[in-house]
Request: fold
Amino acid sequence: MSKKDFTWNRKHLIGLRELSREEIEHILNTAQAFEQISTRSVKKAPTLRGKVVVNLFFEDSTRTRTSFTLAANRLSADVIEFTQKSSSVSKGETLLDTARNLEAMGIDIVVIRHSAGGAPKFLSRNINACVVNAGDGFCEHPTQALLDTYTIRQKKGSLEGLKIAIVGDIAHSRVARSDIYAMTKLGAQVTLVGPPTLMPAKVSQLPVQVSYSLDAVIGEVDVINMLRIQSERMGSNQFPSIKEYSHYFGLTVERMKKAKPDMLVMHPGPINRGVEIESEVADGPNSVILQQVTNGLAVRMAVLFLVNQAAMAK
Amino acid sequence: MAKNILIKNGHIIDPANKLDRKCDVLILDGKIAEVGKIESKTELTLDAAGKLVLPGLIDIHVHFREPGDEEEETIASGSAAAVAGGFTSVVCMPNTDPPIDDAASVEYIHRMGRQARKTHVYVMGAITQGRAGEQLSEMGFMLQAGAVGFTDDGSGVQNAAVMQRAMKYASMFKNVVISQHCQDNSLAGNGVMNSGYNSTVLGLPGIDPLAEEMMLWRDIQLVRKTNMPYHVQHVSTAKSVELIRQAKADCLPITCEAAPHHLLLTDDDCCDYDTNYKVNPPLRTGRDIEALKQAVKDGIIDALASDHAPHLKSEKELEFLTAPFGIASLECALGLYIKALLEPKIIDWPQLVSIMSERPAKLIGVDKGTLSKGKQADITIIDPDFEYTVDVNKFRSKSKNCPYDGWKLKGKVEYTIVGGEIRYSAREI
Reply:
């Protein structure tokens, strides 16, 4: 299929594992077209005028939610914020009931963040509105990986043949999983780095290399993505201490000396300064962390636009 | 209801008496009066031509949810499901609310079973009070009330010293088994499915096979020391099979059961987050299925048991992470075993009947599982080749959490006769 013939026909964005390279590239290309809207004096397009987007967030999130809200606003949609701490049936309404109630109000797109892997897929099976995954458990976080690859493409031209390290708590990271699917599909070689206790089961069956030594990997990679060490993991004894974790897996000024001079330093945020990354590195010349945030907006506009378009076509 | 019945022209399979041929069965006063060529007349004659006549099937692992969760199942609805599935005896697990951990609760289950007047309802009592894994429950009193064994099913006894004490203590009683849901909670953590590639890509916490095998290994050592008869519930991994095989070779008093889902489904089936596939122990891999089937073939598996675990639709309509564990399968279990074990020719009919009736009866120490003269007439008559489609909406069970909905299965139950009474007939549909 040539690029010209390609038509996007998914009304949900659940994850990148099920997407083809072409589909991923189509989102990135669409995002590129939206990028310039943010640079205009009137930062708005009428694309989703009259549409209702719900931000259905069952987990704390600042940047992803804000980014989705802004993206929907830029496309002239009406946005409803719905935040709830837990979805446990004992504590109230079930996820399904919540979604059905919202749907009864006539919503068009649900952007969902949920602590249970599979929640967006479950929702997409049970409601008619478009479903966009804004992070589910440690399953996927597709828009984060899309903005990561968008940023790499922007800086490096292409991901083909690039060596990328993802460092940290891979086992509990939805970002890592979505990154692995997107980056490898776009031709990059991915190496996962972290202690064995933070690697998922059967990691060898993923299309990646695994290393337990950041020092062994850092000199060879073109991009390094430092995952946030979640504070809730610290109590679960997956590694002895923050100090020891930082010693082996922190991105320090000292370690940066071994890196390629043009290595991109990425982080999905929010960063723990001095834990997985030293401040000087996070704020240094190799860092594209804020560029990632900027690009997130264009990517999320593209996703909202595409799923809505597919829903209209159906 | 007639207690004198002549079953004519059926094909009898009675492994205990090495019977596998066409003959008649006469039931008088609720007991087996004669097996052979019978010409005498009785008040009721059933023509069983082309049908199999079996000693009543026994399911030693069901959850009837009463007391506590009667909206999911009651002893009455579960019993109706049992006889529709061809089961003349079932063993209820004690993980109810409150748990069955004293003689009064055991008697309550029996009473509700008698009132339901469908299948024989037996019960295992909890090993520990409140199933909390700490203080031993009154096993002696529960035995006197008719409990057929003990288990904290739903959770294994975590503390090795408590488990050792339970085995030592129970070893003074005769005709009793201690049964375990093998799972080390420290290893299982908050897992909701098998730990492996699928759990990794689904982003769901996994339960490592080691969680089962570790506790099983520990318990085998305790059996070695106490010589207490010990039963392993729903074996799910290849390594567990190996541990049991070795323990049996060492002549330890160990038995085990396999559930239909562990013979037919794998963790690949969880990939759509369908909570009807969420079960504990979790669905494993094709390799584990092969090991379990080989174990059935080799006679290592003593009993097939459904682990019938009903749940409300509204509970199963949750995220995979939060939905409860369990599959309701009592009414189609026989067809599932036929599909898993007979169709691929792993075993033959007499072997299947043996592990669905004769051996489970021995395991729980009840005088059943045969068509010997003088025994209580518990008989299941089936049409082995009749194919039907599983339809959860026709279940007598109150719950429909069944991943086999729509499956085509063979082996239709024609009559279920309990104590000489026809308690289920396919005709009444």
Summary: The radius of gyration of chain B is 20 Å. The longest strand of chain B covers residues 379-389. Chain B is about 30% helix and 20% strand. The interface with chain A takes residues 195-197, 199-204, 206, 208, 272-273, 314-315, 317-322 of chain B (CB under 8 Å).
